[in-house]
Amino acid sequence: MKETITLPFYVKFSLLLISLVIIFAAIYLGQDVLVPLLLALLFAILLEPIAKFLNRKVKLPHVIAALLTVFLFIAFFAAIILFLSWQVSDVVEDFAMIKKNLYLHIDNLQNLVYQHFNLNKQEQKKMLDDATEGSTKMVGTTLLSVTDTIFNAILVPILTFLIILYKNHFIKFLCKLFSDEHKEKLREILSQIKVSIQSYIVGLMIQMVTVSTLTSIGYSIIGVKYAILLGVITGLLNLIPYIGILMAALLSMAATLSGTPDVTIIFGVIAVNIVVQFIDNNILVPLIVSSKVEMNALASIIGIIIGGSLAGFSGMFLAIPILAICKVIFDRVESLEPWGYLLGDDLPKKFKWKKMHFSSFDGYNAESETTDPMAPKVVYTETNGDSDSKKQNED
Predict the structure, then answer these.
(1) Based on C-alpha coordinates, what's the Rg of the chain?
(2) CB burial readout 89-105, b (16+ within 10 A) else e
């Protein structure tokens, strides 16, 4: 008879910390392999229904169906890149005007700094030169990053095709790792991961199109040049939760200033971003994105920061799907269930005040003031429910 060894809490916690350090170190050192592989896995999960449709309904061979699916996927992104290139060509044509406006704004900024900080233009130039002393190294890093991006753009579709092609092979491999008593749980986990990832990425696509459209319309109304280009870039950067929209807003303000000498249009750009983000955070995210991946904002932000520090923009994009996969696994493995609860979000979606309903953005819950979270929960069954109701009628 096998004896179960129970380790003290401090030993378990120490092993957990060591495991996390090893995992993060492995991700950081192997990001050149893991990032394209994880991106390909996400895209394969997203595209698998299309390949299945072509295989079963259109009666194409499995290899041809997988290949055609990846070609459609490449064509979609090629269309986006072509559209952006077409819009950027307008910017190139206006380069002389952009250069003139930039010099004008820089001159105004230098005068403002001189008035408030008593630094003349020569002193300001010296400070900028000192601050950008390592710019040569930065250029080399940027070129290396561009090279990695081009390599990943070629590698990810190939890996996506192979994952779709060998999907059943990988599933059988996972089944061989577990005994028969755990196969039902494995099937449930794989099914839920597939649904969660597909729903999340489709929701992100809908969110991207909606944010791009609303931002483009808003910029067009206030008279921003390159409104469509900036709107599409805002939608693309919005794929990075929380942080992407800030980057898009700063980029939009810089691009707007380069297109006009009027500084006051910046207030219009800020107003458009505030309105679009209000619609995004209160309508699109709760209905389309958050309903698919139930995770609290703190876990999401920490995951994005860690992903960005480990693997840059790709890590920031992958953070939420990876956390969603972890949560699905944690929720269905009894020993890991507390960690699934930690990642989850059980706050009330709405609260009521004087017959008015509001979306809840904090931890307030009227029941939490009177209910002890450590108290055992009462499970109402048919028997005790009937007996309680009879007792109330007798009273």
Answers:
(1) 27
(2) eeeeeeeeebeebeeeb
Torsions phi, psi of 226, nearest 5?
Answer: 60, 40
Distance of CA 30 to the CA centre of its chain: 21
Please identify every stretch of the chain with a pLDDT value under 50, giving residue numbers as ranges: 1, 135-143, 360-375, 377-395
**Distances 309 to 105, 150, 246, 313, 317 between C-alpha atoms, Å:** 33, 21, 18, 9, 12
Start-to-end CA span in the chain (Å): 56
3-state secondary structure 66-98: HHHHHHHHHHHHHHHHHHHHHHHHHHHHCHHHH
Q: For residue 393, count CB atoms less than 10 angstroms from its CB and return exposed for 0-12, middle for 13-18, buried for 19 or more.
A: exposed
Chain segment 68-113, per-residue pLDDT in tens: 999 999 999 899 888 888 877 777 766 666 666 666 767 777 777 7
Q: Which amino acid is at 194?
A: K
Q: Which two tokens stand for residue 246?
A: 């800030």
- The β-bridge partners of 353 are 356
- Helix axis angle, 265-279 to 180-222, nearest 10°: 150
Quick one: CA dihedral 184, 186, 187, 193, positive or negative? positive
Look up the pTM and report it.
0.70
SS (H, E, C) the chain: CCCCCCCCHHHHHHHHHHHHHHHHHHHHHCHHHHHHHHHHHHHHHHHHHHHHHHHHCCCCCHHHHHHHHHHHHHHHHHHHHHHHHHHHHHHHHCHHHHHHHHHHHHHHHHHHHHHHHCCCHHHHHHHHHHHCCCHHHHHHHHHHHHHHHHHHHHHHHHHHHHHHHCHHHHHHHHHHHCCHHHHHHHHHHHHHHHHHHHHHHHHHHHHHHHHHHHHHHHHHHHCCCCHHHHHHHHHHHCCCCCCHHHHHHHHHHHHHHHHCCCCCHHHHHHHHHHHHHHHHHHHHHHHHHCCCCCCCHHHHHHHHHHHHHHHHHHHHHHHHHHHHHHHHHHHHCHHHHHHHHHHCCCCCCEEEECCEEEECCCCCCHHHHHCCCCCCCCCCCHHHHHHHHHHHHHC
